Amino acid sequence: MKSETGMMPVPQPNCRFCQSPLKHTFVDLGMSPLCESYLAADQLDQMEPFFPLHVRVCSECLLVQLGEYVSPATIFTEYAYFSSYSDSWVRHAKTYAERMTELLRLGSGSRVVEVASNDGYLLQHFAAKGIPVLGIEPAKNVAARAVEKGIPTIERFFGPDLARELASEARQADLVIGNNVLAHVPDLNGFVDGLRILLKPRGTITMEFPHLWRLMDENQFDTIYHEHFSYFSFLVAERVFAAHELTVFDVEELPTHGGSLRVYVRHAGDASRPVSPAADALRRREKSAGFGSLDRYGGFMPRVAETKRRLLRFLIDAKEEGKSVAAYGAPGKGNTLLNYCGVRTDFLAYAVDRNSYKQGKFLPGTHIPIFPVEKLDETRPDYVLILPWNLKNEIVGQMSRVRNWGGRFVVPIPRVEVIE
Known about the structure:
Layout: E1 24-32, E2 51-57, E3 64-66, H1 72-76, H2 87-103, E4 112-115, H3 123-127, E5 133-136, H4 140-148, E6 153-154, H5 160-168, E7 173-179, H6 188-198, E8 199-210, H7 212-217, E9 230-231, H8 234-242, E10 246-254, E11 260-267, H9 277-288, H10 300-320, E12 325-328, H11 332-341, E13 351-352, E14 370-371, H12 375-379, E15 383-386, H13 392-398, E16 408-411, E17 417-419
Helix pairs in contact: 5-6
C-alpha cells in the first residue's frame, strides 16, 4: 500500500534482542560496500553492491544495532582479516592466555574453546602449554591458517545447534573465549544461548567487544560497518547475558580497538564467584552517564559530520599545496571512513598493508590500490594517513623512517590530527 506521497512505506525493523520496533536513528553513514570485500583488478569495471549503514537504537532495551542487510555467510565465508598481522594484538593474546591459565588453573585436563578463532593467534598460546583447544571459525581461508599452526578448528558458524553437538560429545569448555565476535552475530539470542550450552557448570566465558561509551565519546564512527551488527554498553551486555541465565560477574576496561570491555561471565546458578566491585562500579558509572536513557544516544551524528568536513579540508589543503598523501593500512574501519567521506584516488594515491592477502587488490568502493609497505619508501609521500588509528603507536614505531624524508603521520579519529 502506498503512502500519500506515492512512495511505498519502508518496513519497520525490529530489535534483534527484544523484538521492539526500531524507531530511533543513532547515526546514518549513507551507503557503503562491505568493508572487507577487496577487489581484484578485473572487478573494477563490474557492478559493486552498496548497502545502508544506518544504525538505530532500541527505545526499549537500548541496544544500538545495524540491520542485517547482508547475511553473515556472505561476509565471513572468505575473510580478509588475519589477527596475526598485528604484533600488539598477538602480544595482547599471549598475555591473556598466560593470565587465564593461572587464574583458572587450566591444564591438560581442561578445554579452551574460542568462537571466531581466526588464524589461531590466541589458541596457539594455550596449545603451547599443553591445554586442549578448539577453534570455531567460519571463514575457510582464515581457518586454514589456524590448522597449519596445529590448532584444531571447526569451519562453521557458532550457534545453539553446534553447541549442543559439542555438549553431546562431552566437549563442553572450562573457558569459552569470544574476542570481537559478539558484535558480529545477527542472531544475538541464539549465539548467547549457544555459549550457555557450551559452558561447563563451573566454567567461565570471556567476551571482548568495543565499548559503546568509548565509541561515542571518542567519535569512533568508522568502527561501524556491515559485519558489526550490534554495539554494546556494559548495561546492555549485562541484560543480554541475563536473559539467557548467564551472569556477568567481572569486567575489565581495555585499550584495544580504541577502548574495549572484557566481561567475565558464568552460569547464573554458579554462586562461587560473586559480582565484582569493578562490575558494580561500571554499572553505576554508565547509569550516571545516562546510558540507561534514550536521550544519551542523540547528538552523535553532528560530530560525525564534522569529522568528515575536517578530513576533506585537510586533504584539499594538502592537494592545493602540492603535497602527496598515502594511507597506511587497509582495515575495515578505513573503508567505512573513506566511503563516508567520499575519498578516492583524487586525494589518496594508494594504501599499503602488511597483509599479503590484500596486496595487489583495491579498497571496496573507493578503488584505491593496495601495495606492500615498501611502496612508501619508493614514493616517499609527504603525509601518511594511518587508517587503523587504534594501532598508531605501533605503526609510528615501525615506520619511523617516514620522518627521515620529512614525511608526517596523520590520524583521522577521534579528530584529524598531524602527529608531531
